[in-house]
Design goal:
This protein has 5 helices and 9 strands; from the N terminus they run H-H-H-H-H-E-E-E-E-E-E-E-E-E. The protein is elongated, with a radius of gyration of 17 Å. By secondary structure, the protein is of the alpha+beta class. A hairpin with a 2-residue loop joins strand 5 and strand 6. The strands form 2 sheets. Strands 1-2-3-9-4-7 form a 6-stranded antiparallel β-sheet. Strands 6-5-8 form a 3-stranded antiparallel β-sheet, with no helix packed on it. It starts with a helix and ends with a strand.
């Protein structure tokens, strides 16, 4: 079994390869892409080599510079399928988060619903408080999730769930003693 850090390394390498392939296909230099993305050339080089993981903001800039959506970098070629097998899940992460994400739903056909399996390591690293259009559903498979809605904290255990409008200020963290595994479902798609 590949360790969590090993999965993160493989995901960073795969992401970097996709970015480099698209940049080269567009005949852009590292400097051109980095400038358009608002990041440094050395950082982009590290991302392409799998030595660094971009934050959501950096990945968004890279996607914009290459004329694609962020979704392009995290979807797999098998997105047309409606069935996802557990042994085929591919976890990915972002530099500004220790969490790992695996897409459970496909993005083909303009679907609006997104479902993600999230692995949150222990620690009090609360996500940024956010609001956006849509709604969200969270189901805790294992561990403990601290969910904050409009400043009120709810501690969810395995088997607990929450459903809320995304326009409500919300954030989450794992304050428990072990990794939390959560299914997140939301509209519209975020990745």
């Amino acid at each position: 079994m590949v360790s969590t850090s090993g999965k993160r390394d493989l995901a960073a390498l795969a992401l970097g390869e996709k970015i480099r392939a698209m940049r080269q296909r567009l005949n852009q230099t590292l400097d051109q892409t980095a400038t358009a993305a608002g990041i440094s050339k050395p950082f982009l080089s590290q991302v392409e080599r799998g030595l660094a993981s971009p934050s959501l903001t950096s990945l968004s800039g890279i996607a914009r510079a290459l004329g694609v959506t962020m979704q392009y970098f995290v979807e797999t070629p098998s997105e047309e399928r409606s069935v996802k097998r557990g042994d085929q899940l591919e976890f990915f992460g972002f530099a500004d988060s220790a969490n790992l994400f695996a897409r459970l739903t496909n993005t083909a056909g303009g679907r609006q619903l997104e479902s993600i399996l999230v692995r949150l390591p222990t620690g009090k690293n609360r996500s940024e408080v956010t609001t956006h259009a849509g709604e969200e559903f969270v189901y805790v498979i294992d561990g403990e999730l601290s969910l904050e809605l409009e400043g009120k904290e709810f501690v969810l255990q395995a088997g607990d769930s929450a459903h809320y409008q995304s326009t409500v200020p919300h954030s989450w963290s794992n304050n428990g003693s072990k990794e939390a595994v959560v299914v997140w479902v939301g509209t519209p798609r975020l990745f």
